[in-house]
Structures are given as C-alpha cells and as structure tokens.
Amino acid sequence: MADPKEEMRIRKGSVRPVNERIAKLREESVNKEVKISTERARLITEFYMNSGEHPAPIKRALAFKYLMENVSIPVEEGQLIVGMRGTGPKEVPTYPEVCCHDRDDLELLNTRENNPYRSDDTEWYHREIRGYWEGKSVRDEIFRRMSDEWLDAYEGGIFTEFMEQRVPGHTAGGERIFRKGLREIIRDIEGKPEDNNELEAMKIAAEAMITYAERYAEKLERMAQKEKNEKRREELKRMSEICRKVPAHPPETFWEALQHYWFIHVGIVTESNPWDSFSPGRLDQHLYSFYEKDREVSKELLEAFWLKFNNQPAPPKTGVTAHESNTYNDFAKINIGGLKEDGSSGVNELSYLLLEVLGEMRTLQPNTAVLISMNTENELMDRALEAVGPGFGEPPFFNHDLTVKMLERQGKSPEDARCGGVSGCVESGAFGKECYILTGYINLPKVLEIALNNGTDPMSGKKIGVETGEPSDMNFSEIYEAFLEQLKHFVRIKIRGNDVIEKIYHEKLPVPFLSLWIEDCVDSGKDYNCGGARYNTQYVQIVGLGTIADSLASVEHNIFREKRYSMEQLIKALESDFKNDEKMRQYLINRTPKYGNDDDLADHIAVSVFNHCIEMVEGYPPSHVRKASRRVYGLPTTVHVYFGSMCGATPDGRHAGKPLSEGISPVQGMDRKGIGAVFRSVGKLDHFKSGGTLLNQKLAPDLLKDDKVRIKLRDLMKAYFRMGSHHVQYNAVSPELLREAQNDPDEYRDLMVRVAGYSDHFVNLPKGLQDEIIARTEQT
Amino acid sequence: MPSSGKIFDVKRFAVHDGPGIRTTLFLKGCPMECHWCHNPEGLDTEDELFFFHERCIGCESCLSICETKALNRRENTITIERKRCTGCGKCAELCPTEALKMAGKTITTAQAMEIIKRDGPYYETSKGGVTFSGGEPLLQHDFLAKLVKDCKSEGIHIALDTSGYAEPKIFEKLMEDIDLFLYDLKIIDNDIHRKYTGVSNLYVLKNLKTLCETEKEVWIRFPVIPDITCTDSNMEDMIDFLSGLKRIKKISLLSFHDAGEKYARLGRVYAMGSTKAPKRDHMAEIRKKFESRGFAITEGG
Lengths: 780, 301
What we know:
The structure holds two protein chains of two kinds.
Chain A: H1 4-13, H2 20-31, E1 35-37, H3 39-50, H4 56-70, E2 91-93, H5 103-111, H6 122-133, H7 138-145, H8 148-155, E3 167-168, H9 175-179, H10 182-190, H11 197-226, H12 230-245, H13 254-271, E4 274-275, H14 283-293, H15 298-310, H16 319-324, E5 333-337, H17 349-361, E6 367-372, H18 378-388, E7 397-399, H19 400-409, H20 414-418, E8 421-423, E9 427-429, E10 434-443, H21 444-452, H22 476-508, H23 512-515, H24 521-524, E11 535-543, H25 545-561, H26 567-575, H27 582-590, H28 600-618, E12 629-633, H29 639-645, H30 675-682, E13 696-699, H31 701-705, H32 707-722, E14 727-732, H33 735-743, E15 752-754, E16 759-761, H34 767-775, E17 778-779
Parallel strand pairs in A: 1-2, 3-4, 5-6, 6-7, 10-11, 11-12, 13-14, 13-17
Antiparallel strand pairs in A: 7-14, 8-9, 15-16
Chain B: E1 4-14, E2 22-27, E3 48-51, E4 71-74, E5 77-80, H1 90-94, E6 100-103, E7 105-108, H2 109-118, H3 120-126, E8 129-134, H4 141-154, E9 157-162, H5 168-175, E10 180-184, H6 190-197, H7 202-212, E11 217-224, H8 232-243, E12 250-255, H9 260-266, H10 280-291, E13 296-299
Parallel strand pairs in B: 2-8, 8-9, 9-10, 10-11, 11-12, 12-13
Antiparallel strand pairs in B: 1-2, 1-7, 3-6, 4-5
Helix pairs in contact in B: 2-4, 5-7
C-alpha cells in the first residue's frame, strides 16, 4: 500500500534549484496568486479610440508600437532575464480586441474555485473596456458570422472553437530566431519592393521591439547606478548592455541568446494572445553553440529563464473555452533531443542539462518534450524516465522519427521536417516555418449519439444532424455508416466555419511581429495570418476515440454477434441512463471487447474511426486565405470532461455526463491487460496520418524506483515507437495519494499530475477531472 | 503430444520473471501445496471458481443456471457451497460484473503461441522472451514441451519458473531447449519440506544438481517465509547445498506476502493467516548471511 505522505516527501525533496537566488525567485513565482492586469486592455483601447483609419496590418503594427512604448517594464528582484507580458509576475493581460470580458466574466474568474484570476477593477473594466469593445471584438464578429447550423452544433457540444478567444499562433521558433537580429531583418525588408502594407507593418513592429529593449536597457542602467550590492550592480550593468544589443543584433553568448529569445517571446504574446503561447522549439539545438562558450553560468541562467515562463500564466478564458482548457498553463514547450537537420542524433550536453533543470525546478511552466528517434542514445531516455520517477508528469516522450514522417507526408522537405518537433500538447510542426492552427475539438461519442437518435440531439430535442434512419432497423454496418454520415455533416459545418474565421483574422488581425520570425513571411511579404508562412495547416482535434471504439464494439458484440440484447433494449437503456438496467450496464462494461487490451475487434474499430476522420478532413481542398491543408490531431486538453457533460449514456456502459476517454487513450480503467497490451492496441493506429496523438498512462510509482525495471520500461517504449506510435506520457502517482489530496487540498498544493498534454496542480483541477485521473488504470 | 493445456493467467510486461520484458504464462496445477503459495488458483488441475464479493451487484443471473445448486442467495449477494460446485463455469459466463470468474482456461498451443508472439516487438528491444510459470509448469509436461519447441523455433528466449518437482527423466528431456531456469529452492531438510509442501524434495535437489552440470543459466529463488524457510538451520543447509553446486552464484530473495484474500475468493483455507511479511532488517540480515558466503543477492524476481 502506497504511503501518500512518503510519496509527497519524495516529490518535494526533488525540488533543488541551483542556488539561493533561483530558489527565492522560484518560491515567489510558485506562491504568487494569478491576477488580471488591465494595463494592456487600457493601452490597446486608447490606441483604437485615437488611431484613425489604417490598413489592418499597419493598424496592428502601430498598436504593437503603442504597446511596446508604453507597457510597464517590471524587473523581478534578482532576475537575470528581463521582459514580461503583463505588469508583474503572474499578472496577466487581456486582449479585448480578440475577446472582451464583461463584468460577469471577470467576477466569475475572480471568484471561481479552480484556477481563479483575481481582479479588483471589474466595474471600471466593464465600463471603459467592455463599453468600447462590445460588438467590435473578433469573438463577437465570429459569433455574428457563423451559420445557424454551426451555432447549433457548437452549443450542442459537438465541437468547440479555438479561435473565438485566442488568435492563431500555435507555432514554435526555429533557427531563424537565434540567428537573426532585428536590424538585419529591417534591412531585408528595406531591400524589398515598397508599397506592401504587410512588410511595412513588419518593419514598424521590428522597430517597436527595439524600442522596448532599449527602454529596458535604460531602466537597468538606472537600477545599476542605485544598486548598493556590487555583484548585483555588475549584473545589472551587464543586463543593460545585453538589452542594448539584442534583439536588434544577433546574440553571441548564452545569456544574450536567452534574453534575445525572451524579448521575442514577450513581443509575440503581447502583440496578440496566440494559442498556444509561443515556444522556443528545439532549445538544446539552438543554444548549443552559445553553451559551448559559456558553460559555467548556463544552469543558473537556464533556471532563471525557466521561471520567466512560469510567471506568465495563460490569458483568462471564458465559456466553453474555459471548459476545454481549464488551466493556467499556456503550453509553451521546450523540445529536448531528437534529430539534427542531417538525420543524426541531436542529443548533446545541453539536452541533459535541460532535463536536470526540468527535474529540479518542477514548475507548472514551461512544458517539455523529449524527442526519441532510433538514433537517440538510451542514456537520454533513462535520464528522462528518472525525471518522471518522483513525477509530476513531465517530460512526455515523442517518437521523433514519426514526427518527421508526419511532416513529410504533409509535404515538408526532409530537412524542414527534421528541424521540427512538437508544440502545445503533442502537435507536430515545422518549427519556424509553419503556421499550424488548431481550430477546435470534435466530440465523436456525441456524433454517435446523434446517429442513434436519427439526427436529433436528445439533450436539447433539436434536430442538429441529418436524418440517417432509426437504428432499430439497422445492422451493424448501417449503424456505422450512419455515424460516419453524421460525422461528415458536422465536419463540413466545422470546416466551413474555419474558413470564415480564417478570413476574419486575415481582415482584422494580422500579426506583423510574429511574422518577422516565421519563414517565409518576410521573403514573401505576407503576414503569418494571411498565408505568409512556408507551410500552412489547419487542424481539427478528435476527442473520445476510446469511448467511440468501445461503444461501437459494444453494439457489434452485444447486439449483433452475441445477440444478448436488441437494439431497442439498448436504446431504451441509453435514454434512461441505464436507470433500470444496471445489470446490462455491467455487462457492457465488463464482458465486452474494449480498445486498449490488444483485442482486435475493438482495436480495429478504433483504427477504422481514426482513418475515417482523417480521410474526411483531408478530403477538403486547402483553405481560401492561407491555402492551409486540413489535418487531424488526437488530443483533448480538458475538453473530454466538458464533452462528456454534453453527451448522454453511451453503449460502452458510460453514464450520461461522465467524462469521455482522453486523447487516443483507452477508456479510463478499461485497459486491464497491462501497459504492453495498451501499447499494442494504440500501436495499431496509423499515427503518421495525423499531426499528433496523445496517450496517457498511469504507472505505479514503484515501477520507476527500480533501476532495472526502468530500463525495461525504456525498452518497452522503444518497441512502442517502433510500432509507429507518436507519444506517451506518464503519471507516476498512486491513487491513494490522489484521494488523500482530494480530501486535504491544502496539504497537497504542490502536487502536480499529468492531465493531457500538460501538467497541472491536482488540487486546482475541477472535481470531475480529478475523478477522471483517479479512474485511469494504474499499470503495475 | 497434446495440442492443448490449461492456464490460469497471462502476465504481459512481466518485469521480474527473467531478463528483459517477459510474457509469463501461468500453467495450472501443482504437485506441491506450499502453505505460503501466493497463487492458490494454480494449485488444482481442475478449473475453479473465484468469487469477488465486492463486485457482486446481487442481480441473481447466476442462481438459476447452477445445476448443482451450489449457489445461494444471501441478502444482496450470494454464497457458494464449494462442495457442490463442479467448476462448470456456467455462472461465470453469465455474471455481468465478473464477480464470478473462472480460474483456469483450456487453450491450444496455437492460441498460446499467438499470445506469446504478440509481444515479439518487446522481446526484441529488451532481449526478453517468454516465461512459463504456474502452478508447476512441469506438471503439464507434454503441453509445455510443445510450447517450448514452438517458441524455440520462433527464436524466442524461454525461461522456466519451476519448483523442480518432476521425474528426472521428464525434467532432463525438457531441459534441453530452455534457456533460463528460475529455480525455486525452499527447504533442504526433507521432513520439513514434506511438512510444508506436501511432497519430498528428492526430485527437486536431484534435478537442480543435474541442471548445474550443464551450461544452462540458473537463477535460484528463495522464498523467505518467516519461521519456515528462513530458520538458521535451513539457511545453513541451503548455503551448504548451493556451495556444492559449482555454478550457482546468484540468489533472489522472494519475500513472503499475505495471500489470504485470494484463498478466501477461492473458498480455500489459508494456513498462513497470522504470518507477517519479514521486516526490512530481517531481509537485510538474510541477505548478509548469503553474501558472506559469496552469493550475490537480489530482492524480488
């Protein structure tokens, strides 16, 4: 029996910042409450009220300039890297031009139990900010322009919409960021033909960022003059010099490289609120040449850099979006390991150092990804699994060979593919060269529910699907066809909506500053949101693969093969949420083939649904504005809880309202044949046809304590990747500890667990999500 | 050779049953009846009925199907009259929650091979393979021989987890194709061995000696059972015996753990109800004793 107290002691004991300065900064960062900072909202509103008419790119560039000239420039005491989104650590700005909160939204954010955002200016905000933006924000525009069928499906919990509160971003930096200074980019722009608003806007944005860095340089110089401590005085002077150099000029030292990146990061996430944040990408690759020159202070600088991420929680979300991603985590992700451009292993000393920093800092942000290829040294996997040991869910593991294969399949060059990695949760991308936008989740079990009700949503009574017939007259393949027919209907609605939204962003919200850093926006003279990136992709994310596979397997097995129940009986039981059919429900749960047990019947259904989704989405021609190809991801964030709440009982025995399965993982608790069987089942999917898939596994903490067993786990994972799978992440946490934390949240505030493509504080999760994580099978 | 046999479990990703990642098949039936046996469902050669009372929802599906009236209703659950139960399994077939579940399943060697081969990718990356355990796998030696032959021809590494209790000629014939023996050695004194396991240890000792004269890899497993196997005299005997076998260098200590719940689910009497698992200090002491005589010790698997 696990001892929760002991488990917690081990976890706490593994936090070991490199020195006292970092320890202090970490304490402050971890303990600080999250607050809304109204400064950005005030500035952007002032700007829009007074700026007059400009073409959209110019207007956005001038807005960015106004922000960078006027935002506060806080410096955390003792920090080595400067620049911050917001007015201080964990003080989060809002983006009213995208999504404008009203008084009620802010009150809810302020007072809600899980992940609150404190604010004291709600009345002022409502009057001044909301008063100006109501009806003008992108969000308002989107809901105005969506069709009735889109709105019905959205409200019915069939799909969500990423872009209604966060702007397209979802990309990571490539080599360009660490190689180029802004002066050089400005010269590049000046060498181009004139009369291009988008390029002109990029130039304004570049100059605005130089101004921002200079403001910091001056502030740091003033601080140095007043500083009594000699060591700190020298540091502040050095920091000031660095800010005069980068990002105007390319960095030359490790410190300069981190500061350079960070200014760019802050610029991108101040310009707008891209989802997900922004990421430094393959950090061990980008930083290695700097690291070679500057080893001694590298770890301290990296840990200081780490905390910069942790001090920037996600912008506050509301409504459905708050349900689908209920976390402070903003999904900035650091990639470790993987392949170099030439296909050889990219693992270097810095890869190990980053793992060390991750294990010792143990903060909510940034997220990481360990990229494993057939060429990757075992040592890296072993060290990474050690970090999982006293675990908080980090790091997740990715098959980099497969990431490359995915990207090549989408038409990227082998070199661009190899320099890519994963951002957000599990999303493959050609870093620094691709605009790959997540547009929303699709609720697969809900689509089945609509099919089983001949097009009607039993929750609302509305006919939101197409008429595919009464299921009681159908055989299994007809039921399956009806499901596909409904899915096709909703995918069509979703994709149509996506194209309208893409156009709205093209018209209203170019991102000149982000465009500076993504190839080939400058070369082509086109904004990132208007198709300037070298590669353009648009994703929908499928959710509930386990639940849908088990539900269809249950129908096939129980109704048509074993003929244990009739279709009418099943439908009746689903309608009443198994009210008088507990015996049937138990049979559906326990005596029916389930995905995740290496059972071919259920697994083949998962494979078939997966392939059909991809075929359907990829069948659409490229989008109009960005010429983006259409692709599929398999990840959930926290939407499986929301989607579950919108979905009635399912034929796999799941009660109405309960969470769906997450990612491509088997249904919680239904994978009963061990992790080897789970990997075999999941390995049957054609992962390479998607852009990324997410698998959660919960391990008994003891498994990772024993060196010998850990090596076996590494070899198991290697085999799993050889099967062509994409990703796996582990929670090494006992159910006893999780239950104890539910009972006594104050004692367990530090406890972090893997949720979906990110980790979070367990006690901050909504109860439904906590229960869902406890229900996941513990592999022993 | 029979093309089918009886198993009671399959463990995939077994990490304590030999090198690398193993798939362990548990063959049903054992000639011994060790008091501390933690797989009591492996003892009998016949199928047996497990009852997980906490899963029972009182639906009564099972009551009417039982031909011998071994099942009876009691409040919201059932009771089993074990004497009447024939192990036909019809009730388990109907039970929606798997509260009633059969221990024991007849499978063909082809089916067994299909299960074993599924984990091929794992054997490859980890240099693992299959482990036959039990019960005592040698009890179904014909079935085992066929499986061993098939695995051999597939190039799968084979481990045998055995008590060594089998007629020497059977043991020797099977020995050939097995790559690794996980050999359970319990008690050296034959009378005490008889008392706690129900059988003589003559075969056990003889087969181990024979084995040690070959080049086969052997890992000795010593179950640490308080007051029974880890007495001073048994440990002395054990060290003497093993020292006489030139190739034995490594011993795994398997600590006793309470298996009472499993016995209750099978309706069996558990003889070790009051025994506690040895404390960490005690395990360290035992470890030291072996180490001081030149053996390398591991704990667990």
